[in-house]
Structures are given as C-alpha cells and as structure tokens.
Design brief:
With about 425 residues, this protein is mainly α. The chain is built from 14 helices and no strands. The chain has one domain.
Length: about 425
C-alpha cells in the first residue's frame, strides 16, 4: 500500500514545487499590487477591467479548441511539433473571426461593451492562447521551471505597467494596457524557448493527430469551452444587467477567493494530469487513492483559507481598499460555498481526459452555463445582485460535487478491477 500511495517524486515533485512557487510569487505580486491599484482605479474601472479579463479567458480557450491537451497524451514527437505550429496559426485566425463576428453583432444589438475593449480583449486573448499552447508543450516535456518563470514575468510586468499607466492618467484602460504588456512579454519569453519546435505545418498530419484523439473534439473542446464561458460569463452578464461597479465588486470578491485555487489546484492539476496519463496503462488501480489524497489536501487547505478570509482577512481588505469598496465582505461570504466545492474537483478535473469520460465535464458545463444565465436573469429582474450571487453559488457548488461523485465512482471501478 505504501508503494501504491507514494507521493510525487523526482521530476513530478519538483514540478509541483516549481509551479507552486511560481504561482505563489505571481499571485502575491498580482494580489498585493492589484489591491493597491484597485484603490487607485476604483470600482468602475475595475468593472471594465474584469469584463476585459472575462473575454480574454473565454477567447484563450475557444481559439485553440483545447487541442493542446493532445501534447500530454501523444507519443509522437513529430505530431506534437506539427500540431504546435498548427495551433499558433489556428488561434490567430479564430481570434480575427471572433472580432469580426462581434462587430457584426454590435451593429444589430447594443452589447454594452465597447468595440475598443473587445479589440483589446482579442489582442490579450491571442497572446494568452499562445501562452497556453506553449505551457502545454512544456508540461509534456516537464519544463515546469520555464512555466513558472513565465508566470512570474507576466505578473511583474502587468502590475508594473498598470501603475505606469495610472500615473499617465489612463484611468479607464490602464489596467487593461498593463495586462497586455505583461502577457506579451511572457509570451516572448516562452517563444525564446520554443523557437526550435517550430516546423512547417502539415495539415494532413494535424488532422490525423486530432482524429486519433477525437474525444478531445467531441467532449473536451465543448466542455472546456462551456466551462470557460460559464466561469467568466457572470462578469459580462453582471455588467449587462447591473452596473460596472457591481462587476468590479464581484470580480474582486471572486479574485480574492480564487487565489488559493490558482495557487494549489492549477499547479497540482498540470502535474497530476501528466502523472495520471502515465499511470492509466499499468497502474490505473492506484488513481482512486491518489485522487482522494489530492482532493482531501486541497479542500482542507481551502477551508482554512476561507475561514481566515471571511472572519479576519476581508475586513482588513476593505480597510485597505477604502470606503468605495465597503460591503465587499458580503460577496465573499456568499461565494465561499462555490469556492469550497470547486476546490474538491479542480486539482483532478483533467483526469476525465485520461479515463475517457470527457462527457462528465461536458454535461456539467452545460448545467453551469444554464445556471449562470438563469441566476443573472432572476437577479436582474429583481434588481438584486446579491440574489444572483446567492443562487449561483449554491447551485454551481452542488454541480461541482455531483460531477466529483461520478468521477470518483469511475476511479473506484478501476481500483476494484486492479485488485
């Protein structure tokens, strides 16, 4: 049993520690710098910025079709290099088409987000997509230190340029410009590493590689696209149904609570995905115990954080941010249930790709998108942002737990087969 439950070792352990260190440093920089900047810029500018970030997050997923997941499970170096070059081109084309589509829709409907902000979102979204493609390639070859360095570069230069643009009196868009500069510079750093991986694109080989992993197209792409939309649609809908200030409050409340998820879950998730892909062939029966251990650790850590944040931290935060941000603690309380439930699933969520149960995440994300729309409409009709967030936190949290139940049930089946 000791051998079955042994902790990540050698490169895997170093990978977790390297990514965790990079994410920790980056998040400390982003959060501490972001709090100071939030006080300077105020809720309205923060609302515009959070809307921008939501578009970026959605675009960075949609433009690559999440095909970079193939890197981790593919055995062919030639196919990986070809797909890498293909995705850089594909993401550029899709980003351009998205912007044209938004321009067309804006001519028909009033979408309440200016074309200029959407254009900036497309620029940042494209570079973020390129970063995602490259970090997936680094994950394949266990270049975790490079991923960590890029994350830190992004954080330092984003905050630095955001402060510079504030001094230059760009009060509405300074946060956005700073983020774009940081993202571009981190992308340049990654390209300095991956430049030897470029190859002329063979679309026939790319198609063959994709078809060999068709479940990613059938389930992972729509599932992760829906997940990106669901997790970021809330800010966009709040800006539509309520005020920019409300979007700013929600964005900062969510950011404060999501930080530990980013620090713990994302770092663990990348390495767990790589390790589980290697275990599935000969040691699939060990995945249940390993997953359970990861979940318990993550939930316990997040639970402690939430208690400290809601009873102590949030009131210190409101004092730091100033009177404009009074009442932020109410939103953090409401969203805590959602965060705790996410903490149980996030570190192992990509295992559905390994065990070929991508449809679990697909069905869940359909549910999550519907919940987002429904709760925003209900809250919007009642002109009550807290009602929207309360309903969303409860029903979204329950959804995460239901998906976790089915994932663990499948892993338990693998364990029983291996006995």
């Amino acid at each position: 049993m000791k051998g079955k439950l042994e902790k990540f070792k050698t490169k895997n352990a170093k990978g977790v520690l390297s990514l965790l260190a990079g994410n920790t440093i980056a998040q400390v920089i982003m959060v501490s710098g972001g709090l100071v900047l939030a006080r300077f810029y105020g809720p309205e500018a923060s609302g515009t910025y959070n809307t921008f970030l939501s578009f970026v997050a959605i675009l960075s997923i949609l433009t690559t079709f999440r095909l970079e997941n193939i890197f981790v499970i593919s055995k062919s170096s030639k196919a990986i290099r070809n797909l890498f070059s293909t995705l850089l081109i594909l993401s550029t084309i899709v980003t351009f088409l998205f912007f044209l589509g938004y321009v067309t829709l804006e001519e028909i409907f009033s979408l309440k987000t200016s074309l200029f902000i959407v254009f900036l979102s497309c620029v940042a979204g494209l570079f973020t997509a390129w970063n995602n493609v490259q970090t997936s390639l680094f994950t394949k070859y266990k270049l975790f230190k490079s991923i960590s360095n890029g994350i830190i570069i992004n954080a330092i230069f984003s905050i630095g340029f955001q402060y510079v643009f504030y001094l230059l009196d760009y009060k509405e868009t300074g946060l956005i410009y700073g983020t774009i500069f940081g993202t571009v510079l981190s992308c340049v750093y990654y390209f300095m590493i991956t430049k030897g991986r470029f190859t002329s694109v063979n679309f026939g080989l790319a198609k063959e590689t994709i078809l060999q992993n068709k479940e990613i197209i059938q389930y992972t792409l729509p599932s992760e696209s829906l997940n990106a939309i669901a997790n970021n649609l809330m800010t966009i809908l709040i800006a539509f149904y309520f005020l920019k200030e409300d979007a700013g409050f929600y964005g900062n409340a969510a950011k404060v609570l999501v930080v530990p998820l980013v620090l713990l879950s994302n770092s663990m998730s990348k390495v767990f995905f790589q390790k589980s892909a290697g275990m599935i062939t000969h040691r699939a029966h060990q995945l249940y115990d390993l997953s359970k251990k990861v979940i318990l650790y993550n939930v316990a850590a997040i639970a402690v954080f939430l208690l400290l944040m809601n009873f102590i931290g949030i009131f210190i935060l409101e004092w730091i941010l100033g009177p404009e941000w009074k009442g932020l603690h109410v939103m953090t309380w409401i969203l805590s249930f959602w965060i705790l439930c996410r903490a149980a699933l996030n570190p192992i969520q990509q295992i559905v790709v390994v065990i070929k149960k991508n449809h679990y995440a697909f069905y869940f994300n359909i549910y999550l998108v519907l919940i987002t729309f429904i709760t925003c409409i209900i809250g919007g009709l009642n002109k009550n942002i807290l009602l929207t967030l309360s309903l969303y936190s409860f029903f979204a949290g329950i959804g995460y737990l239901i998906q976790l139940y089915f994932v663990m049930k499948e892993l338990k089946r693998y364990k029983n087969i291996g006995k």
